[in-house]
UniProtKB/TrEMBL annotation:
This is 5-formyltetrahydrofolate cyclo-ligase. One of its GO terms (molecular function) is 5-formyltetrahydrofolate cyclo-ligase activity. It is an enzyme of class 6 (ligase). Its cofactor is Mg(2+). The keyword Iron does not apply. It catalyses: (6S)-5-formyl-5,6,7,8-tetrahydrofolate + ATP = (6R)-5,10-methenyltetrahydrofolate + ADP + phosphate. It comes from Vibrio mangrovi. Belongs to the 5-formyltetrahydrofolate cyclo-ligase family. Its EC number is 6.3.3.2.
Length: 194
């Protein structure tokens, strides 16, 4: 079996081959799936991320959530607690800065922070996923730590992964800290492990 680093390299290369037109169509297909998800209808505070590095494009999804009257929150790397994320309310007027990875995030403003336990859903980015719902991230562990309370006792925000179909592999190498996802949405289907 390939190592996690080898899987990351392979799948990121697959993603980078996707054209802008393909990305737009994929995003629209995912919105079509999400419009039928009960979790969307019952949720108000939804965390998402700004896509980067070939990830499934999220700008249209964010706009769609706003149109549904949902409050959208974006992750910000915690300035003091290593490896932790904060979630800040995001609107079209939110001032943005690039974090240490070159990814745009809201400028830190403590008045815009919503505690993670008050989020209803967290759409999680991922590099790859497998047939058991295991998620391979970028390796920083930010989302594994964020989702740990949900994984341990199903409290707090429910995680749902977003991915392109090409990010699927049959089996990933899994570590003890990895948090499997109950649901992952791709352009062609909704994967369930609940």
């Amino acid at each position: 079996m390939m190592t996690r680093a080898e899987f990351r390299k392979l799948i990121r290369e697959r993603r980078k081959q996707l054209s802008a037109d393909f990305q737009q169509t994929a995003s629209e297909q995912v919105i079509g799936h999400l419009s039928n998800l009960p979790e969307i209808h019952s949720s108000q505070n939804i965390a998402l991320y700004l896509s980067a590095d070939g990830e499934l494009a999220t700008p249209k999804l964010i706009e769609w959530l706003w149109q549904q009257g949902k409050s959208v929150y974006l992750p910000v790397i915690h300035p003091f607690s290593t490896g932790q994320l904060l979630f800040l309310h995001y609107t079209p007027e939110t001032p943005m800065v690039n974090n240490r990875y070159g990814i745009a995030e809201p400028r830190l403003n403590k008045e815009l922070i919503l505690p993670t336990r008050q989020l209803d859903l967290i759409f999680t980015p991922l590099v790859g996923f497998d047939a058991s719902g295991h998620r391979l991230g970028m390796g920083g562990g930010y989302y594994d730590r964020t989702l740990e309370p949900w994984f341990k006792n199903k409290s707090g925000a429910k995680p749902i992964g977003l991915a392109h179909s090409c990010q699927f592999v049959e089996k990933l190498p899994v570590e003890s800290w990895d948090v499997p996802l109950p649901k992952i949405v791709t352009p062609d289907k909704i994967w369930h492990w609940e």
